Amino acid sequence: MDESALHHMREDLTRLTRHLRSHGLHVCVEERTANFVDEEGIQLSTLEHIGRKSDLVIVMGGDGTMLSVGRALRDTPAPLVGINRGRLGFLTDLQTDNMLGEIDKILQGEYQLESRMLLQSEVTRAGKYIHQTVALNDVVIKSAFRLIELEVHVDGLFVSQQRSDGLILTTPTGTTAYGLSAGGPIMHPDLAAISIVPISPHTLSYRPITVPAKSVIEVIVVHAADAQISFDGQGQYPLMAGDHIRIARAEQEIRLVHPKDYCYFDMLRNKLNWG
């Protein structure tokens, strides 16, 4: 982040913190974020403590920040609202220039509450778990430079064996992320479904498939030159031939707070420049 961006971040966070405290609200700031707040006497805390004790968690940043915080707070009841300091901002509804008024409306009860599903992913190698985590957007299996070969099963039923640059397993939230760029469908977030999207398949007849969210998807790595798996694009782990990846709907969900006048289709139209 350049010096100008840091200055504006500090200015916006300080303005927001002071505004909330001026209303007599108890404001707790995440420990590292406090480095960007010029306000005396604020309470500092860990993100987990904030999630467990707060009525509302306000996240300032881009979608990447919302993804990180959402995953971190998946076991807490706190709802999240995002203030966009990124680019597209599919998950961050508010803008910094009108954030104070919009936050006031939300605090007065003028909001929509929405739940978003998560994916639970487990990687097994030679019968042993080597990695497991959750994703709000997607689980991506890919190679940077070569084709990889993957075998896909859904609920124990063989689907296909494909050679491609990789595979995206995406929630409805993630269908406006990497899955969209790879030619996958856009799914409304109220749908309970998982989309399986190939990345540049060697056989062009391989197309995205959408299955019910109750499905269990297993991907077996057949050939894995330079293959890796990532979760929401934030953390990459190497894969080997023979690895098994199990993807299913997680028990936890993320709760998002939207302004009262929020419309999913308005958001798509604005972010994707539809006419």
From TrEMBL:
Which reactions does this protein catalyse? Answer: NAD(+) + ATP = ADP + NADP(+) + H(+)
Annotated localization: Cytoplasm
Look up the record and give one Gene Ontology term from the biological process aspect. NAD+ metabolic process
**SUPFAM superfamilies cross-referenced by the UniProt entry:** NAD kinase/diacylglycerol kinase-like
Q: Which residues are noted in the entry as NAD(+)-binding?
A: D63, G64, N137, D138, R163, D165, T176, A177, Y178, G179, L180, S181, Q234
EC no. given is 2.7.1.23
Q: Which cofactor does it need?
A: a divalent metal cation
One CC-aspect GO term:
cytoplasm
Decide whether keyword Nucleotide-binding is in the record.
Answer: yes
Kindly state which keywords UniProt assigns to this record, in alphabetical order: ATP-binding, Cytoplasm, Kinase, NAD, NADP, Nucleotide-binding, Transferase
Per the Swiss-Prot or TrEMBL record, the active site comprises D63 (proton acceptor)
Top-rank taxon of the source lineage equals Bacteria
| Family annotation (InterPro entries) | ATP-NAD_kinase_N (IPR017438), ATP-NAD_kinase_PpnK-typ_C (IPR017437), NAD/diacylglycerol_kinase_sf (IPR016064), NADK (IPR002504)
Q: Which GO terms describe its molecular function?
A: ATP binding; metal ion binding; NAD binding; NAD+ kinase activity
> Where does it mainly reside?
cytoplasm
Biological role stated in the UniProt entry: Involved in the regulation of the intracellular balance of NAD and NADP, and is a key enzyme in the biosynthesis of NADP. Catalyzes specifically the phosphorylation on 2'-hydroxyl of the adenosine moiety of NAD to yield NADP.
Q: What family name appears in the similarity comment?
A: Belongs to the NAD kinase family.
Protein name per its UniProtKB record? NAD kinase
Identify the species of origin. Answer: Methylophilus rhizosphaerae
